[in-house]
Design brief:
The protein folds into two domains: 237 residues, no CATH class; 85 residues, no CATH class. Helices cover 68% and strands 0% of the residues. The protein is built from 13 helices and no strands. It is globular, with a radius of gyration of 22 Å. The chain starts with a helix and ends with a helix.
């Protein structure tokens, strides 16, 4: 975290925005629409792009001068932990297949190393982490593109933004007309999502100094636009991972991305001024990787508890055991109450934060032990 006070404040806002985004991701996987403000801001109309926006915001220009080191750093921070956990969940899926579960594919070289770049849904227990290899590829494309354009000594920020946006719009049009399928999903996903990364970059370098409107008029404008979009369009949700479900033409998805991020970015700014809430949300925002990787496993733990209750206690008798063993998206609600989803949400996020804490402790211990072993 930078020492400069202004940058610290800005970074805290973006960390809180990341926290909001990952909460939406977890809630979305439960089908819990509690935070979408009466369907005004549906999660699937913008939430994946929050992480692209934040990644673009934190991109540093000097990365273009040390591309090798930059890409190596991304391999260590993004890909290495991803493949380690992919192996863990692959082994877990194999063990659970032996216990009667049919969730996830079998462990193989393809599911370990190729499938993560194709769709990321190979073992299902960590399927939300499909985003990690995609982000890595976007980071690579971004820095290479910027390095090439920097040779022309031009101010190319707006050129990159509008060029990527045009490519994304064309991708949405092709997807809506049935031309983005099979192997085309991979380049289609990258082209569709790249504008989100560039939105974060253009906001930091060109627009952020002008983001000074007071909260009242700001929310009035953003929500007014969103109400009109919601009324005039046939559903705002889309699938970023599958590059599908575009119901309103090629421009509306990016418009809802802009309005969704604009609304919650201002909410994050307000939260950043409330010390206790700011601290907790910032902590969640620093651990979005772990939450993305593990919250489905947390949901499975909750379902496993209810399953055991259905076997050995008088409770949860209506638990659907067949769905539990075959559908990763199955959510058992106690007495049919939607409030049960809070249990899943707390356990999914809490388990992930606990794993992140254990990883940090293990890393610290390893760093302390390395100098000792080096003496022998």
């Amino acid at each position: 975290m930078e020492k400069n006070t202004a940058l610290f404040r800005e970074n805290r806002e973006l960390r809180i925005l990341s926290a909001i985004g990952i909460i939406f991701v977890a809630a979305g996987h439960l089908g819990y629409n509690l935070f979408d403000l009466g369907e005004l801001f549906p999660y699937y109309s913008f939430h994946v792009f929050i992480f692209l926006f934040v990644s673009g915001y934190f991109y540093k220009e000097e990365s273009q001068e040390r591309i090798g080191g930059y890409l190596m750093g991304k391999c260590f921070t993004l890909l290495l932990p991803y493949f380690a956990w992919n192996l863990f969940y692959g082994v877990l899926a194999e063990l659970l297949h032996g216990a009667g579960f049919s969730i996830g594919e079998s462990l193989s070289l393809k599911t370990l190393f190729l499938s993560p770049f194709l769709d990321g849904h190979q073992f299902m227990y960590n399927f939300p982490a499909w985003f990690v290899p995609v982000l890595f590829m976007l980071e690579v494309l971004n820095v290479l593109m910027r390095k090439i354009l920097s040779l022309f000594k031009l101010d190319f920020e707006w050129l990159i933004f509008f060029g990527c946006l045009l490519a994304g719009v064309l991708t949405v049009w092709l997807a809506a007309t049935g031309h983005v399928w099979g192997w085309y999903k991979l380049p289609g996903r990258l082209l569709f999502m790249m504008p989100g990364f560039q939105m974060g970059r253009i906001y930091r370098t060109r627009l952020e100094p002008y983001d000074r409107m007071t909260d009242g008029p700001y929310f009035l404008i953003v929500m007014g636009i969103q109400i009109l979009i919601t009324i005039l369009c046939a559903g705002l949700n889309f699938s970023a991972v599958w590059v599908s479900s575009f119901a309103n033409g090629p421009l509306v998805p990016y418009l809802t991305v802009i309005t969704g991020i604009a609304f919650w970015l201002r909410v994050a700014r307000i939260m950043s001024k409330i010390p206790y809430l700011s601290d907790k949300m910032t902590y969640i925002g620093r651990n979005t990787y772990s939450i993305m990787m593990h919250h489905i496993a947390g949901f499975m733990l909750v379902k496993s508890f209810f399953y055991l209750c259905s076997l050995y206690t008088p409770f949860c008798r209506e638990f659907d055991r067949e769905m539990f063993f075959s559908e990763i998206g199955f959510v058992y609600l106690i007495g049919g109450s939607e409030a049960s989803k809070w249990i899943y949400l707390f356990v999914g996020i809490g388990l992930s934060l606990g794993i992140a804490w254990l990883q940090r402790k293990a890393g610290s211990m390893l760093r302390r032990l390395l100098p000792v072993f080096s003496r022998f």
